[in-house]
Write a structure and sequence with these properties.
With 544 residues, this protein is an all-alpha fold. The chain has one domain (2-496). It is built from 22 helices and two strands. The termini are far apart.
């Protein structure tokens, strides 16, 4: 009852005309910059921090919260429409969202993202207000072995499930882990894979990597096919979700929320792991698994819900422990410090009105996001009616702008081009790009937790499974790794089922393999068709 009364007092503060105006400004700014690749909520909060020094702390943090939630949603817009994630947590949305857009269902993808963000954000904020002490206590109880096991599970789950073959998946993951190693060793201070370039000492920013692999790689791939593929306008489709879309979205919204909030509340969590796990789960549970890779709405609804639920979860350790789990929370922590406020266990007691007004403003910001973005779904979707040369020229412009704005270094533009060429080659040879991006994101964190675990156990590898939660996760990892072998042994143990299974495998090509090899096979066929069309019956090559 005390929580409810405190929350009502927070609503009374947040719903004043001036604070409501700041919430609207924050949501609009957050959505606008979230749409631009590389210009995420963390950068926006940092840029606006000096401007808010003259504001009352409550008003400033209400605007920051609006920017945070708006930015988390805005990143999904470019992921869906342009296959260009604005934030690393929007990477998964691009998988099915962009396929839906190319199939003429961009408005439905944007609508399920908006509604899923509202549902997950509302539930996540409620859990933040009610269950924050319990969640924080659980998060603090986990040690480095459990965090390390969770990250290993995330890496293997995505690599084993996605892709036409495990070999290609692990090759892509190896590339991502190698890119994640670039920089300075956090323990010894030695530079790794920097090739003597001082600008690589701090490593490669994940925004630059994600924008290069997705946006630049996609633009180069399309440019390579423009002369072979007829230019056409992609239809926008119906502007709202149909009955079947609602039926297929509401369960992923709830499951994505269940993934997102706990991971967001973990000090080593964030929004990347739950979005990947949500996608894998929806692919396993879907009644339409053949649509994954071609534009399954569950693959948008689940990860977007996980993304926004994690956004609410990240505020839990920041407010209750003073421990930021992502860049935006770190900037907000700096804002608290600039106002002379110290987040931690005593924050709810010393700054109760401010905290509850901030939490109440999260509910208001979620509603404002839905009101503003849902009607704009068809408007955003009409971006796809631009001719592709102009569309991808715009993508390259904003990708370049976003990459340069991260560190204001021209060197990042060179890395953008190099990694974009890598993204193009991965599409050419059928390597999935998601394991690479996940390896870049989780590689440094995985190394840090591994070193902490081995330091605590004095170098004994047994320390990796010294916690019950870690043991349970390793059992799941073993099942994922050995599942194909177990299925093969099970089929061998049932001779009567072997002929039927063999016949099915001989006449059926797995959808996942067709999906991931589609680009490579298409390019090969196009090459053969081009060669044939330019060759005379006598076998001589003619000039066009």
């Amino acid at each position: 009852m005390d929580v409810f009364s405190s929350l009502m007092d927070g609503f009374a503060t947040a719903l004043t005309p001036m604070n409501l105006l700041y919430a609207v400004i924050g949501v609009v700014l957050g959505t606008a910059v979230g749409v631009l690749p590389g210009l995420g909520p963390a950068m926006t909060v940092a840029l606006l921090l000096p401007v808010t020094y003259a504001l009352e702390p409550t008003s400033a943090f209400i605007m920051f919260a609006g920017i945070y939630y708006g930015g988390m949603y805005g990143g999904s817009t470019t992921s869906i429409l342009l296959n260009t994630p604005g934030e690393s947590s929007s990477v998964v949305t691009a998988i099915e969202g962009n396929k839906m857009a190319k199939a003429g269902r961009a408005a439905q993808a944007l609508a399920t993202a908006a509604i899923g963000s509202f549902v997950a954000g509302t539930i996540g904020t409620t859990l933040l207000a009610v269950c924050a002490p319990i969640v924080v206590q659980f998060a603090v109880s986990l040690g480095s072995p459990s965090y390390f096991a969770i990250m290993v599970l995330a890496l293997l789950a995505v690599t084993a499930v996605l892709g036409s073959s495990r070999l290609r998946g692990f090759a892509s993951l190896g590339l991502g882990l190698a890119i994640g190693l670039v920089g300075m060793d956090s323990v010894t201070g030695q530079q790794r894979l920097t090739f003597g370039l001082p600008l690589l000492a701090d490593g490669l920013d994940i925004v630059v990597v994600a924008v290069a692999i997705f946006a630049v790689g996609e633009a180069l791939w399309v440019a390579a096919h423009l002369r072979r593929t007829p230019l056409h306008i992609i239809p926008v489709g119906r502007p709202w979700m149909g009955k079947q879309d609602w039926k297929r979205s509401w369960k992923p919204w709830l499951r994505g929320t269940a993934f997102g909030f706990p991971f967001g509340a973990l000090p080593a969590g964030g929004a990347e792991i739950p979005t990947f796990l949500s996608y894998v789960t929806e692919k396993r549970l879907s009644k339409h698994p053949e649509e994954f890779g071609h534009g399954a709405i569950e693959g948008v609804a689940g990860p977007e819900a996980a993304n926004n639920a994690a956004a609410a979860g990240t505020l839990t350790p920041m407010l209750a422990l003073g421990l930021p789990t992502n860049a935006t929370a770190a900037v907000m922590l700096a804002a608290f410090t600039s106002y002379g406020i110290q987040p931690g266990p005593q924050l709810f007691a010393t700054e109760g009105p401010l905290v509850w007004a901030l939490i109440a403003s999260l509910f208001i910001g979620n509603l404002l996001l839905l009101i503003i973005n849902l009607p704009l779904a068809p408007v955003w979707a009409k971006l796809l009616q631009l001719p592709r040369p102009y569309l991808y020229a715009g993508i390259l412009f904003f990708a370049t702008l976003g990459a340069y704005s991260v560190n204001l270094q021209a060197f990042d533009l060179v890395m953008l081009l190099v990694l974009g060429a890598l993204g193009f080659m991965m599409r050419r040879f059928g390597l999935p790009v998601l394991p690479l991006v996940l390896g870049v994101i989780l590689g440094p964190r995985l190394e840090g937790q591994l070193r902490k675990t081995l330091q605590l156990s004095a170098g004994d590898p047994a320390g990796l499974w010294s916690e019950p939660i870690a043991v349970g996760i390793y059992v799941i990892v073993a099942i994922i790794l050995f599942w194909p072998l177990l299925m093969r042994l099970w089929r061998m143990a049932r001779p009567e089922a072997a002929p039927a299974v063999a016949g099915m495998q001989a006449t059926t090509v797995p959808d996942a393999a067709r999906t991931n090899d589609e680009n490579a096979d298409t390019l090969a066929m196009d090459d053969r068709a081009t060669d044939t069309s330019q060759t005379t019956p006598a076998g001589r090559q003619e000039n066009p």
